[in-house]
Write a structure and sequence with these properties.
The complex is a heterodimer of chains A (407) and B (438). Chain A has a single domain, classed as Up-down Bundle (Na+/H+ antiporter like fold), CATH 1.20.1530. Chain A is globular and about 55 Å long. With 407 residues, chain A is mainly α. Chain A contains 17 helices and no strands. Chain B has 2 domains: 2-87, no CATH class; 88-303 and 323-437, Na+/H+ antiporter like fold, CATH 1.20.1530. Chain B is 77% helix and 0% strand. Chain B has 20 helices and no strands. In chain B, α3 (58-69) runs antiparallel to α19 and α8 (150-164) packs parallel to α19. Classes of the chains: A mainly alpha (407), B mainly alpha (438). At the A-B interface, α1, α4, α10, α11 and α13 of A face α1, α2, α12 and α15 of B.
Chain lengths: 407, 438
């Protein structure tokens, strides 16, 4: 037991240290995203801790940590939702919708199709649900460091690319919400007998009510400590309620966060800062538990990795080509846009983990383990590939044009 | 208050709706605990606001909220969820002890040390003796004692006397903070309950050894275990303080999260190593405040964001853990025990105050700090139930019944005393664990 406690305490200390601003500076200098710099080590740590010889994350401990996992998913959901500011959408240049659609829908459809075929080939059987979720994991993109750098120097095209990635995250989460509504895992168990479309309303309604609840709570807070306490309570309640109803906490909390961010509040920036301040340590602890839940031993999962990566990156480049042709003139060239939008967002891992916590039981467990390997392995492989290609191209260049979007 | 009532109603309705989704006997791993945590935290904070509006302690609001939401009344928070939330308890006890230690400056109370020892000693000694005699006198009425020979009855009575005499640093610190109180009564109260708690923990280890030998049970080590428990905890506390000190000097980033993690480690590892997490964290707080250049009250101020939700959940979970069914069974005995304890603490306390030359104006209010009970008494009573088959369970039920009364009544009395003495609202600057008071 002492080993467990010391292991977890060590992981907590590492998570706090890994969120140190100095490390973020190093990340930026090396052009890495959070996934490669600290995310992969924490995933690996989770896998390592799970090994019987190490014995830190035993079955009992993983079960005990499930609330932390749900809470982490809820927190990430709030982070995603709070980026969905309608006022900023209004300020996007004309025809930006085409970019968002191309970069979300094409990767979603292509990856879902390719992975469905691969799953059939692996004798897992055809499942629309699984294919859709892999598609949902393909949509979110994480802007590479070059985008952040160019954006900070006032590049409007980098700014547009960064906003597109935010909306790609939202698209992925929305698809997961649809999957949770239309493929109910607990119909036999639950006391509620609702048609599937009603679950969509339940999801939206619950997220909306929880968003309003959070809003009233944070408005009534008298100081920072109270605000954090209310925020913790609201996230836990939202994540717990969603999980209890077998809806993804990521989805319910994203809806709540989106509503919260679009309501008037004079301390909204401070609130966002409070949420973002804990995002990194929570995400790393979340990855630790995700690593423990992940079973990377099945070869089928690794076969799925190249299929997922090729389909996704190919679709992102295709989407970029279409976007450049139909989108606003601020966009960079096809190659730059394709590479910039290829790295996988951490939200993709959150989506697959959330999906597996709801659906991984019985026969579905095997296929979901392969899917998890595909998404995690795919994220790492894509990131490495993009780093190499970007360096071979001598970095990514974003033209400096007059600022269209607020920085 | 209207906003708090609305929010409380909304949260209750949401959780009641969610709980209706699955049959009563079905429970989900993870989600149940997350839901319970969120619900208990938000409902407790709103209840605290409502109670504060009624000029009652917020802490009583947390307790009442937990009691009503718990398995005894509405079962919105089930026994299983409560079990999952006990993890928070260990952390909360650690944070509270760390805050209490960090607030207790020996430099400040040096002149009052004699008065603190005399008052605390007088109150506790009298309470242990009087409760022991009362249990012995009532033993023909207590079924589980009736068949025992007198020697065994005496040991059981003494054990109950020690456990039921426990004071409550958690409640005292929480109420001082909530009231924004400062002054001699606040300082002496805190000193007395902290020292008293140490004495009770030690005394329990001694009577536990005595009871084990009397009832022919193995006593896991006897004196050596006691010494390890005491000095091991103190040593671990110093180590804890050094780690926090190094972190503050070298990193000093996200301090609340770090301290929260350390308290979690302390609670989990301490229990496995037979150390007392409360003593470990108390020592750490005292060490940081009195030996290092870290100002304890500033550290306490720093950890507020982590402490506030933890404290609210801790007291609400304590309230939810109160079993109405058990209380109904032992109500007359519990009421009797609570009255005897109060009388003994009052009498012994007044005697100690006279011996310690406490000024008359302070004597009038100081004893009100003694009546509350919470974590330590509950923890020891549960330990009694687990360790001694046969008499442990009914003895524990009687004690818990009494604790339930003291837990509800004690904070009301002490808050009133702080207000009447004029110390409430006198504090300026960062307060001790304003987390509870917010």
């Amino acid at each position: 037991m002492l080993r467990v406690v010391l292991g977890l305490a060590g992981a907590l200390v590492l998570a706090v240290l890994a969120a140190h601003p100095a490390l973020r500076k190093v990340e930026r200098r090396l052009g890495l995203t959070v996934l490669l710099s600290t995310g992969v080590p924490f995933l690996a740590l989770g896998v390592l801790f799970r090994l019987p010889a190490v014995g830190v994350l035993t079955d009992d401990v993983v079960t005990d940590l499930r609330p932390a996992l749900e809470f982490g998913l809820g927190w990430l959901g709030f982070v995603v939702g709070m980026q969905f500011d309608v006022r900023e959408l209004d300020r996007l240049p004309d025809r930006s919708g085409a970019v968002i659609l191309a970069e979300s829908a094409i990767p979603l459809v292509v990856t879902a199709g390719a992975c469905a075929l691969a799953l059939v080939g692996l004798e897992s059987g055809w499942s629309l649900r699984d294919a859709l979720v892999l598609g949902a994991c393909a949509a979110p993109a994480s802007p590479i460091a070059a985008v952040a750098l160019a954006r900070s120097s006032g590049s409007s095209s980098a700014s547009l690319v960064a906003r597109v990635t935010v909306l790609n995250d939202v698209a992925g989460v929305a698809v997961l919400g649809l999957v949770c509504a239309f493929f109910r895992p607990t119909d036999a168990l639950s006391a509620w007998k609702l048609p599937h479309i009603a679950w969509l309303f339940v999801t939206l309604g619950m997220g909306g009510v929880l968003g309003i609840l959070t809003y009233i709570l944070v408005r009534s807070a008298k100081g920072g400590s109270e605000e954090v306490a209310y925020l913790l309570g609201a996230v836990a309640l939202s994540a717990g309620m969603a999980g209890y109803l077998a809806i993804s906490p990521l989805v319910a909390c994203a809806i709540a966060g989106a509503l919260l961010t679009n309501l008037p509040h004079e301390r909204m920036n401070e609130l966002r800062a409070s949420i973002l301040q804990l995002e990194r340590p929570l995400y790393l602890i979340f990855l630790l538990v995700a690593g423990a839940l992940w079973d990377p031993t099945a070869w089928q999962g690794w076969v799925l990795v190249p299929v997922f990566v090729l389909a996704r990156v190919g679709a992102k480049v295709l989407g970029a080509a279409l976007a450049v042709r139909t989108g606003p003139p601020q966009l960079p060239d096809t190659g730059t846009l394709g590479i910039a939008l290829s790295p996988q967002s951490p939200i993709a891992i959150a989506i697959i983990v959330s999906f597996s916590t709801i659906y991984a039981s019985g026969e579905a467990r095997t296929a979901i383990a392969w899917m998890t390997t595909a998404v995690i392995g795919g994220a790492v492989l894509t990131e490495l590939g993009v780093q190499v290609i970007a360096r071979l191209r001598g970095g990514l260049r974003f033209e400096d044009r007059p600022e269209v979007l607020p920085s | 208050m209207i906003r708090a009532a609305f929010l409380l109603a909304l949260v209750v309705m949401l959780v009641a709706a969610a709980r209706s989704f699955l049959p009563e006997e079905t429970s989900l791993v993870g989600s149940g605990a997350t839901l319970a945590f969120g619900f208990v935290l938000l409902a407790a904070l709103q209840s605290g606001t409502l109670f504060s509006g009624l000029r009652l302690p917020r802490l009583t609001g947390y307790l009442v909220c937990g009691f009503i939401a718990g398995p005894s009344i509405t079962n919105l928070v089930t026994e299983r969820m409560l079990g999952d939330l006990r993890l928070v308890n260990g952390v909360a006890i650690g944070l509270i002890a760390l805050s209490a230690g960090g607030e207790l400056s020996f430099r400040r109370i040096r002149g009052r040390l004699g008065a603190i020892l005399a008052t605390g000693g007088g109150a506790l000694l009298t309470a242990v003796v009087v409760i022991t005699l009362a249990v012995l006198a009532a033993s023909p009425l207590l079924g589980f004692l009736g068949a025992m020979p007198w020697s065994q009855r005496a040991v059981v009575a003494l054990t109950m006397g020690v456990v039921f005499s426990a004071l409550s640093p958690t409640v005292t610190l929480a109420l001082i903070s909530e009231s924004g109180a400062a002054g001699p009564i606040s300082e002496m109260s805190l000193g007395i309950v902290v020292v008293g708690d140490l004495v009770i923990v030690l005394a329990f280890a001694a009577v536990h050894a005595l009871a084990s030998s009397t009832f022919g049970q193995a006593d896991a080590g006897g004196l050596s275990a006691l010494l390890w428990h005491l000095f091991g905890s103190i040593g671990a506390g110093v180590l804890f303080a050094v780690v926090v000190l190094v972190y503050l000097k070298l990193v000093n980033l996200r301090v609340p999260l770090f301290v929260f993690g350390m308290c979690f480690l302390c609670a989990e590892a301490g229990t496995r190593l037979d150390l007392d997490p409360l003593l470990v964290c108390l020592t750490a707080g005292l060490f940081l405040e009195n030996v290092t250049d870290v100002q304890g009250d500033k550290l306490v101020h720093e950890i507020q964001p982590a402490a506030m939700p933890t404290f609210a959940v801790f007291f609400a979970v304590a309230g939810a853990g109160l079993h109405w069914a058990v209380f109904q069974l032992v109500a007359p005995i519990a009421v009797g025990l609570a009255l005897v304890r109060a009388a003994a603490l009052y009498g012994g306390g007044r005697l100690g105050m006279a011996l310690g030359r406490v000024p008359p104006a302070e004597r009038r209010w100081l004893h009100f700090a003694f009546y509350s009970q919470s974590g330590v008494a509950i923890g020891l009573a549960i330990l009694l139930r687990e360790r001694f088959a046969g008499w442990g369970e009914p003895a524990s039920a009687c004690i818990l019944g009494g604790v339930m009364i003291n837990e509800m009544v004690g904070p009301l009395l002490f808050k009133t005393a702080l207000a009447q003495s004029g110390e409430a609202g006198r504090r300026t600057g960062p307060s001790a664990a304003q987390a509870v008071a917010h």
